[in-house]
């Protein structure tokens, strides 16, 4: 017996590829540009969003029948804000340096369109278990792109991965740097993330022609 | 030879590598295909002739750049000649040889990588190779410092051609000028190789820190560093181009000749060039005025560049080169005549503004042109809309003859039916 029924599995798998929140729905771009200069920050951001969206979707789903529809946006905001503050406090307590790198962008998870989008589009109309899977799936789809972008930006921008030097020491000129290689400063600035995301979209659409919109 | 190529072409028609073959073929000969239906207006200046004309206008700059690379290098080592003589100090085999071995590799890499990517994309997409890269490939080596490492150039060219052009659909569809995209990529990716006082003279980077260290700052760099004293270059040095700078940008004289050539062959728009010159002069005058009325204290870090005579902005740095060869790019510039005036004016205006206010790098031409490239369609849109409005207004106020009351309208209607 499979752990998840086919329909449930699709809730997780679809957002990873053919219905990815970043590359297909083009949501959550702001944070994808801002914090992907380092792989570590991308991973932490991805985990934070997985937590917030997974738990938030369940909470909203449980409350879906008692929220008056006129004030549902405010209720949703309160739920996200609560969860984000938890994440923020945990980060500040256990990973202070990292929380400084992420700075305001942890707080800005509140305004991440993916989260409000899933609350509105899915959690308000489905049961807790399905909503949980949907939240995890979408957050994973977001996280995967973040990690891919972070990987390339850190690798070419600073020559490291998770802080570990991959190409050698740029100041002492060892490893690849001895041959005249230099880090690409362009990859560190946010526009580079936009271009990397663009290339991912390009690759994805040329592999799956069904995703290309009518001109 | 020509016949054989035509036969080969027919043989390979429809094969995968056909576009690549056809590209070489049409580069050498006029294709033998003719259209069979309808009437077509034909002109001899197809895209390839246009491109070749621009390249022709660039060759003097390239040759001058080679001599200048040698001249700057040897002068930095041996000291500048006290009595400058053109043939004794500038047009010498030593200078040319040094320039050739440093600059020709740049040209080769620029064309090699760029055309390779164009060929790959043509084969993937199954269409003909476009000629668009011919000019870009020549422009790129002219707007970078002599000592740019070749692998950096290769990376930048690959980026510029793919992201700047191919993703938009190839030649004629790009929003940004590809050569400037390449320049901007190099500038943001490897700033240490694109600015400062060590990159403009050959070997200065290698010799830095040794007893033989040499340096050659651009005039703009010198002014931006806050030096207000006189520099050693005379106005004729600046105009004829015996100053450090990117390979092909230094000689305003040759750029002017190239520009006139382009205007008379009707390849480039004189409106853009003229309005860009006016724009830069206006901005320069504003800054000069600010200095003259003592709005800017002498200790301000902008003082050096602001007090620089307004017209001298045109003969140092890349402003002239950008105006003549980059701003006039027919694909990325404005298309309407009125739009061209606005577009050109803003390029000149913003270039000088960025020059003065950019703290890191006292040159703004490439940024100004890229910015205006983005705005060009918007400018055109409003010019066209304005024109539509004007005509509608004219229609409303016009007295239309014959008046419906005098019965002639009926008569005319009968005639036309």
TrEMBL record, chain A:
Keywords from UniProt, A to Z, are:
Cell inner membrane, Cell membrane, Ion transport, Membrane, NAD, Sodium, Sodium transport, Translocase, Transmembrane, Transmembrane helix, Transport, Ubiquinone
What is the protein name for this chain? Answer: Na(+)-translocating NADH-quinone reductase subunit D
Segments crossing the lipid bilayer: 41-62, 74-95, 101-119, 131-152, 185-203
* Keyword Membrane tagged: yes
Q: Which HAMAP family match?
A: NqrD
Q: Which family does it belong to?
A: Belongs to the NqrDE/RnfAE family.
Quaternary state and interactors = Composed of six subunits; NqrA, NqrB, NqrC, NqrD, NqrE and NqrF.
Q: How does it sit in the membrane?
A: Multi-pass membrane protein
UniProt key word Ion transport: yes
Q: NCBIfam families, per this entry?
A: nqrD (TIGR01939), PRK09292.1 (NF006777)
Role: NQR complex catalyzes the reduction of ubiquinone-1 to ubiquinol by two successive reactions, coupled with the transport of Na(+) ions from the cytoplasm to the periplasm. NqrA to NqrE are probably involved in the second step, the conversion of ubisemiquinone to ubiquinol.
């Amino acid at each position: 017996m499979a752990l998840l029924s086919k329909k449930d599995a699709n809730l997780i798998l679809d957002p990873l590829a053919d219905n990815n929140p970043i590359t297909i729905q083009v949501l959550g771009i702001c944070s994808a540009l801002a914090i992907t200069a380092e792989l570590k920050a991308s991973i932490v951001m991805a985990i934070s969003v997985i937590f917030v969206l997974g738990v938030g979707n369940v909470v909203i789903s449980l409350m879906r029948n008692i929220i008056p529809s006129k004030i549902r946006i405010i209720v949703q905001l309160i739920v996200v804000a609560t969860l984000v503050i938890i994440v923020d406090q945990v980060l500040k307590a256990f990973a202070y340096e990292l929380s400084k790198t992420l700075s305001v962008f942890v707080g800005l998870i509140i305004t991440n369109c993916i989260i409000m989008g899933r609350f509105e589009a899915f959690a308000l109309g489905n049961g807790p278990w399905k909503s949980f899977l949907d939240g995890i799936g979408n957050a994973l789809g977001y996280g995967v792109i973040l990690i891919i972008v972070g990987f390339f930006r850190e690798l070419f921008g600073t020559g490291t991965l998770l802080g570990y030097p991959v190409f050698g020491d740029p100041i002492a000129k060892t490893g690849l740097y001895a041959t005249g290689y230099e880090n690409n400063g362009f990859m560190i600035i946010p526009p580079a993330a936009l271009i990397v995301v663009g290339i991912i979209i390009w690759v994805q659409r040329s592999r799956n022609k069904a995703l290309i919109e009518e001109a | 030879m020509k016949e054989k190529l035509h036969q080969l072409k027919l043989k390979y028609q429809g094969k995968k590598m056909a576009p690549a073959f056809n590209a070489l073929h049409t580069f050498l000969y006029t294709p033998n295909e003719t259209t069979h239906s309808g009437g077509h207006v034909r002109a001899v200046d197809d895209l390839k002739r246009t491109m070749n004309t621009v390249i022709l206008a660039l060759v003097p700059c390239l040759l001058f750049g080679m001599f200048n690379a040698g001249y700057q290098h040897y002068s930095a080592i041996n000291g500048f000649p006290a009595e400058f003589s053109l043939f004794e100090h500038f047009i010498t085999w030593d200078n040319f040889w040094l320039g050739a071995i440093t600059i020709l590799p740049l040209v080769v890499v620029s064309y090699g990588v760029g055309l390779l990517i164009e060929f790959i994309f043509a084969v993937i997409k199954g269409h003909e190779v476009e000629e668009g890269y011919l000019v870009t490939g020549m422009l790129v080596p002219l707007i970078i410092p002599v000592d740019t490492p070749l692998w950096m150039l290769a990376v930048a060219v690959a980026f510029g051609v793919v992201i700047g052009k191919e993703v938009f659909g190839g030649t004629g569809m790009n929003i940004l000028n590809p050569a400037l995209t390449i320049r901007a990529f190099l500038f943001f990716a490897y700033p240490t190789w694109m600015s400062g006082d060590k990159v403009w003279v050959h070997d200065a980077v290698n010799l830095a820190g040794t007893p033989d260290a040499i340096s050659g700052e651009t005039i703009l760099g010198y002014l931006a560093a806050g030096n207000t004293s006189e520099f050693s270059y005379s106005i004729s040095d600046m105009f004829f181009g015996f100053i450090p700078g990117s390979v092909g940008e230094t000689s305003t004289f040759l750029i002017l000749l190239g520009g006139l050539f382009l205007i008379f062959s009707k390849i480039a728009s004189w409106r853009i060039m003229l309005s860009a010159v006016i724009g830069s002069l206006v901005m320069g005058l504003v800054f000069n005025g600010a200095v003259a009325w003592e709005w800017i204290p002498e200790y301000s870090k902008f003082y050096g560049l602001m007090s620089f005579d307004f017209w001298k902005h045109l003969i140092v740095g890349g402003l002239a080169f950008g105006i003549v060869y980059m701003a006039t790019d027919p694909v990325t510039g404005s298309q309407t005549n009125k739009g061209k005036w606005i577009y050109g004016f803003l390029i000149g205006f913003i270039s000088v503004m960025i020059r003065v206010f950019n703290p890191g790098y006292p040159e703004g031409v490439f940024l100004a042109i890229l910015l205006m490239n983005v705005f060009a369609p918007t400018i055109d849109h409003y010019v066209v809309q304005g024109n539509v409005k004007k005509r509608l207004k004219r229609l409303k106020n016009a007295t239309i003859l014959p008046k419906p009351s005098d019965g002639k309208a009926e008569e005319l209607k009968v005639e036309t039916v």
